[in-house]
Design goal:
This protein is mainly alpha-helical. Helix content is 49%, strand content 8%. The chain has one domain. Helix 1 (31-48) crosses helix 4 (99-124). It is globular, with a radius of gyration of 18 Å.
Length: 157
């Protein structure tokens, strides 16, 4: 598999990793799907830059307003079994996540938190004491609808 290099006109050979998996076969919140979308967005940004520009992941992150680094606690959090887990499954077995993959996951997680908080704020904007919800079942039903909406938005399942 050949992917575009940060320096235009010089293709590099991609390593057989989780990127080999089809993005549509993964759930939208799967760390591998998140990383694939990150790479796709970054490559599109690379292509939109003027010829001769310095094209690095750090330049991309600066341009998009993403943090250039995270603290150790954030990396530990994303490697928890409830998030990414410690190791990535590939076609040949398991491997450790790369720092770039963890950063993409943390970026996505922060964006999801912001999206959900904005959604909740909009729902309670008019009357904070009457959300129309009636119990935990309503909350779980909303979560399921949100997951379905995100799957459709990201073109998954």
């Amino acid at each position: 598999m050949i992917s575009p290099s940060p320096i235009r006109g010089q293709p590099i050979r991609a390593q057989p990793t989780s990127q080999s998996l089809s993005i549509t076969a993964l759930a939208y919140h799967d760390p591998q799907a998140i990383y694939q979308r990150y790479i796709k967005d970054r490559d599109a940004w690379y292509q939109s830059q003027p010829r001769g520009s310095i094209l690095t992941n750090q330049q991309y992150r600066r341009a998009k307003g993403l943090p250039l680094r995270y603290d150790r606690a954030s990396y530990d959090w994303c490697l928890d079994y409830k998030q990414m887990t410690k190791r990535c499954r590939t076609s040949t077995g398991f491997r450790d996540w790369t720092k770039e993959e963890m950063m993409a996951y943390l970026d996505w997680s922060n964006a999801e938190d912001t999206r959900i908080n904005a959604q909740v704020a909009q729902e309670i904007d008019g009357n904070p004491f009457d959300t129309g919800r009636r119990g935990v079942g309503d909350i779980w039903a909303r979560v399921e609808r949100d997951i379905e909406e995100q799957e459709i938005f990201y073109g998954g399942r």
